[in-house]
TrEMBL record, chain A:
<dbReference type="Pfam" id="PF00005">
    <property type="entry name" value="ABC_tran"/>
</dbReference>
<dbReference type="GO" id="GO:0005524">
    <property type="term" value="F:ATP binding"/>
</dbReference>
<dbReference type="InterPro" id="IPR003439">
    <property type="entry name" value="ABC_transporter-like_ATP-bd"/>
</dbReference>
<keyword id="KW-0067">ATP-binding</keyword>
<dbReference type="InterPro" id="IPR027417">
    <property type="entry name" value="P-loop_NTPase"/>
</dbReference>
<keyword id="KW-0472">Membrane</keyword>
<dbReference type="InterPro" id="IPR050086">
    <property type="entry name" value="MetN_ABC_transporter-like"/>
</dbReference>
<keyword id="KW-1278">Translocase</keyword>
<dbReference type="InterPro" id="IPR012693">
    <property type="entry name" value="ABC_transpr_PhnC"/>
</dbReference>
Automatic annotation (TrEMBL), chain B:
<keyword id="KW-0812">Transmembrane</keyword>
<keyword id="KW-0472">Membrane</keyword>
<dbReference type="InterPro" id="IPR000515">
    <property type="entry name" value="MetI-like"/>
</dbReference>
<feature type="transmembrane region" description="Helical">
    <location>
        <begin position="210"/>
        <end position="230"/>
    </location>
</feature>
<keyword id="KW-1133">Transmembrane helix</keyword>
<dbReference type="InterPro" id="IPR005769">
    <property type="entry name" value="PhnE/PtxC"/>
</dbReference>
<keyword id="KW-1003">Cell membrane</keyword>
<protein>
    <submittedName>
        <fullName>Phosphonate transport system permease protein</fullName>
    </submittedName>
</protein>
<feature type="transmembrane region" description="Helical">
    <location>
        <begin position="237"/>
        <end position="256"/>
    </location>
</feature>
Length: 253, 291
């Protein structure tokens, strides 16, 4: 467990000349759930997007499962990146398709292009693996329901199943429970913690409720104006730390 | 409060409302510093629009008095057309057969343009296009096919494959590719890019992202637009018949040329029924899809 599944060093990013990320360093190890905390605009989403490849960082090194992303290109980079799966606040599943088809889509990186024209051509093997992922998040009984018919919490669990079907070792979650009711949020957070602790995944989740972090996370990373100002076990996350983390919001407003 | 005369609910509601909510305080409206400029803009716009219409009236020889003077010609034309010629063997049967041809032209012209329209739509939508050059080129191709009217395509194809419905089908395929490709590209640009983005983080290729992230989201809109185009294309194929592309349009043209206005009227009634049926059918399917 010594080697971190995700290692980020001196990550920097500017938008239109404005520094959004400044010298960001952190690690997420297998088996731990790390909560990212910080005020609006502090750079949490940008950090995760840089890792997932949705935003190109200006500088810095990202190591995923031992592979240096900056040294790779093309197909190799794509495969290395697929080691990190992302879960979104807005879920981003295809509502008209079944939960099963959506979960299968997580495996597209390793499906031959001919067989990936339509869900009709997904192999039986892949479908069975996807069923296993749905079972893991407790949604196997709704596998053939259209995603649009499921509740927000159920949809988010299907999205987690899609990430599992990707066979990722790192799970990035950007505000995974911000759109869910407290009960559903609790369920999804429990699921993410279980995946970290039992399936040995490295989970990084942006959270807006510190109490969720206190209850479910092992470690917290606090961002302020694009810099990491706190990195430690949640037990040391006291009120004064939280006050400084969220004070710039009041000052800026 | 006496038991015999309970207050009517309306009265109490009104009373308590007037008691509880005083009128909001009034404040003077600040002067609009741009008022003069706004008035200028409106004035100029109105003047320009009026000018354009005057030019259009002059350019089209627009003259209602001609219509009044020539009403007899029209009256003769219409009285010749009544009653419609309902001879089964001579008029109705060939009319129905030709109408079927018109319908087939519209159908093939629509469905056979799906592959080309889909390809160009994917290339010409900012959200799915692989490259800015592909985007610009496919936009240009779509604009070309849209700008050339189907009737011009029909005249061109008639010289290649001869008079007949086949030329009409080819013409519709070309024009419809342009129109439907544009409509599809636009609806693709308007849809949520989230699922596509999610699949890109899962390592899916560009093509896979489109097949599993973008297209499934727009299928309902695509089918709706397809049905709408089918409706339009059936009507276009009528007009194409007038230039020799077969179908009921051809029969209408022949009837007019040989002054058989009663036959023409029968054909027009048949066409009217066809149009209503197609319109209702495609409307029905579109409503079913929307649910
Ligand atoms: N594509 C972009 N173009 C320009 N500026 C951007 C872009 N994406 C993010 N930013 C800016 O970068 C800063 C950090 O944004 P980011 O989304 O990472 O914040 P966040 O911590 O996730 O905030 P929130 O809690 O509101 O989600 C913000 O000031 C934002 O305006
Ligand atoms: Mg964010």
């Amino acid at each position: 467990m010594e080697q971190a599944a995700l290692k980020v060093q001196s990550l920097a990013k500017s938008f239109n000349g404005r520094r959004v990320l400044d010298d960001v360093d952190f690690e997420v190890k297998r088996g731990e759930l790390v909560a990212f905390l910080g005020a609006n605009g502090s750079g949490k989403s940008t950090t995760l997007k840089c890792v997932a490849g949705l935003t190109e960082p200006d500088a810095g090194r990202i190591e995923l499962d031992g592979a240096q992303l900056s040294q790779l290109g093309g197909r190799q980079l794509q495969l290395a990146r697929s080691k990190a799966a992302m879960v979104f606040q807005k879920i981003h599943l295809v509502p008209r398709r079944t939960a099963l088809d959506n979960v299968c889509a997580g495996a597209l990186a390793r499906v031959s292009s001919l067989a990936s024209v339509s869900p009709l051509f997904f192999s039986r093997e892949l479908r069975e693996e996807a069923m296993g992922c749905l079972e893991r998040v407790g949604m196997a009984d709704r596998a053939l329901d259209r995603v649009g018919r499921l509740s927000g919490g159920q949809q988010q669990r299907v999205a987690v199943a899609r990430a599992l079907c990707q066979r990722a070792s790192v799970l990035l979650a950007d505000e995974p429970v911000s759109a869910l009711d407290p009960n559903a949020a609790e369920h999804v957070m429990e699921l993410l913690a279980e995946l970290a602790h039992n399936e040995n995944l490295a989970v990084a989740a942006v959270l807006h409720q510190p109490d969720l972090a206190l209850r479910h996370a092992d470690r917290a990373i606090g961002l302020m104006h694009g810099r990491i100002t706190f990195d430690g076990p949640v037990a040391s996350l006291n009120q004064s730390v939280l006050d400084t983390l969220y004070s710039p919001e009041r000052n800026a407003a | 409060m006496s038991l015999q005369t309970p207050p009517r609910p309306m009265d109490t509601a009104l009373e308590s409302a007037s008691v509880r909510t005083p009128a909001p305080a009034k404040l003077p409206v600040p002067a609009d510093p741009h008022r003069g400029r706004k008035a200028m803009l409106w004035g100029t716009a109105t003047a320009v629009i009026v000018m354009l219409h005057l030019l259009a009236v002059a350019g089209t020889d627009f003259d209602p008095t001609l219509l009044v003077d020539g009403w007899q010609g029209m009256a003769r034309f219409i009285s010749d057309a009544f009653p419609p010629n309902l001879d089964w063997e001579e008029v109705i049967k060939p009319g129905l057969e030709a109408t079927l041809v018109t319908l087939w032209i519209g159908l093939l012209g629509t469905t056979l343009s799906i592959p080309s329209a889909l390809l160009l739509a994917v290339l010409a939508s900012r959200t799915t296009s692989p490259h800015p050059v592909a985007y610009q080129v496919s936009r240009a191709i779509l604009s070309f096919f849209r700008a050339v009217p189907d009737i011009v395509f029909a005249l061109i194809f008639v010289t290649a494959v001869g008079l007949g419905p086949f030329a009409g089908v080819l013409a519709l395929i070309c024009h419809n590719t342009g129109v439907m490709g544009k409509l599809w590209a636009e609806s693709m640009e308007e849809t949520d890019q989230g699922p596509q983005e999610a699949l890109s983080t899962a390592g899916a290729s560009r093509l896979q992202q489109i097949a599993h992230g973008s297209l499934p989201l727009v299928i309902p809109q695509f089918v709706g637009l397809l049905l709408y185009r089918f409706d339009v294309n059936v009507r276009s194929s009528l007009v194409l018949g007038l230039v020799g592309a077969g179908g009921i349009g051809l029969l209408i043209n022949q009837a007019i040329k040989s002054f058989q206005f009663d036959t023409m009227l029968t054909h027009i009634i048949i066409v009217l029924i066809l149009i209503i049926v197609v319109d209702q059918a495609s409307g029905f399917v579109r409503r079913k899809l929307a649910v």
